[in-house]
Write a structure and sequence with these properties.
40 residues; single chain; elongated; 1 helix; mainly alpha
Length: 40
Amino acid sequence: MKQPVVVCAKRSPIGNFGGVFKDVSAIQLGVHTLQSIWQI
């Protein structure tokens, strides 16, 4: 079996409970992160 290799790294937004991202779902945060990876 081949070993996985990380070819790109991005950081997703992190906030506090009830903070700036309280109205944004975890799915939307993940979508934003994946879209930024695919733009490279």
